[in-house]
Amino acid sequence: MTKTWQDSLKTALKGNNQNAMRAHADFSPQAGQLFAPVVTSSVNKQINWLDDQDPLLLQFLPHVDELTEAADFHSDPVGDHLSTVVPGLIHKYHGRVLLIASGSCAVNCRYCFRRHFPYGQSYAPRNHWQAAIEYIKQHQEIHEVILSGGDPLTLSDKTLKSLTDQLLTIQQVKTLRIHSRIPTVLPTRIGNSFAIWSESFGLNKVMVLHVNHSNELSNDAIKAIQKLKSLGFTLLNQSVLLKNVNDSAAVLIELSHHLFKHGVLPYYLHLFDKVQNASHFDLPESHAIEIYQQMKKHLPGYLLPRLVREEAGEPSKSLINIK
Ligand SMILES: *Cc1c(COP(=O)(O)O)cnc(C)c1O
Ligand code: SF4
User: Fold this and answer.
1) pLDDT per residue over 169-220, tens digit each?
2) What is the pLDDT, as a whole number, of residue 120?
3) In a domain, 300, yes or no
4) Domain Radical SAM core spans what residues (predicted)?
5) What pTM does this model have?
6) pLDDT digits (tens, 9 = 90+) for 27-71
7) Could you tell me the CATH number of the domain that includes residue 315?
8) pLDDT confidence of residue 23
9) In a domain? residue 256
10) Cβ(59) to ligand 2 under 6 A?
11) How many independent structural domains does the chain possess?
12) Per the count of CB atoms within 10 A, which of 62, 129, 141, 210 is most buried?
């Protein structure tokens, strides 16, 4: 029997890939209780277990430093609840709405704000999309619907189809954008049924991937990216600047080139949101700016991601000003 992506996801959630993690010197079972360790077998294969500082391992390892509670770090650093217009729908930026289509992910990234709402985060359950659809219908200026989460690709293609069927009834919506880590952490998800779904509607299609380090671009991930490209997706990437993972201009410059080679443009480089229990990923803003200045010197403009910070109540993402 061939394994489906759903099987792989179930295996990940059962935590069958974590034995090697437990052997790591900084592994903390208590940290694992604060936020369950979850990786897929594809991620597992990309980790170099002989390297204590492996950039993938550090993104997923329940680390002893998570037990440190730091001042100025919060469980909801972005404050999105303020802009929630109906359950699961965030209308904060002009012309675009963000639909929290799923509360689940294929992996648990240790630095994510979701660590504080793994189950309880308000999202739009399938049977409650009606309210979101009605809201969009009534707002003529909304031309783009962004599916986010969690990870929207944890939903089945059938569920996605029922959502796009409803979006297609709204004249002014032209673009569907998906923010997902799944093409690179669970590449088998981008299979035939996904292809059939994504070819079934005429909206502009944008996929914003989430890759922090070139080591995440496995051969299977690259195949998934090529498939998305052939299906007509515009491919962008967002990264988070993380201490000990990618806090180096050389690593990020190489990532930009590597993404471009496979048809993906760097879009955002996020300054780390001050998420409680993840302060060991934070680096001083002055250091972040130094890294970015190096990147700016070495990269053509189209391969330089925008350095941004999410700020509660702002009408767009805040670009960090760099000379
Ligand atoms: C990032 C984000 C968007 C999309 O912003 P773009 O500038 O179009 O990338 C929309 N809504 C929310 C709440 C966001 O955080
Ligand atoms: S995939 Fe994205 S939303 Fe999910 S845990 Fe990782 S960073 Fe958070």
Assistant:
1) 999 999 999 999 999 999 999 999 999 999 999 999 999 999 999 999 999 9
2) 46
3) yes
4) 91-314
5) 0.94
6) 999 999 999 999 999 999 999 888 889 999 999 999 999 999 999
7) 3.20.20.70
8) 77
9) yes
10) no
11) 1
12) 62
| DSSP-derived 3-state class of residue 163 | helix
* Dist. CA 93 → ligand 1 center (Å): 6
Cα-Cα-Cα-Cα torsion 271, 276, 279, 281, nearest 10 degrees, comes to -50
Residue 246 has pLDDT above 50, yes or no: yes
303, two tokens? 């391969």
> Do residues 103 and 149 lie in contact, with contact meaning Cβ atoms separated by under 8 Å?
yes
β-strand 265-270 against 234-240: which pairing, if any?
parallel
Q: Which residues line ligand 1 (CB under 6 A)?
A: 90, 92-93, 96, 98, 146, 310, 316-317
- Measure the CA–CA gap between 273 and 73, rounded to whole angstroms: 8
In one-letter notation, the amino acid at residue 32 is G
86 within domain boundaries: yes
Rg (CA), the chain: 19
Main-chain phi, psi angles of 234, to 5 degrees: -80, 125
* Domain membership of residue 183 as a residue range: 70-319
Distance 297 CA to ligand 2 centre (A): 30
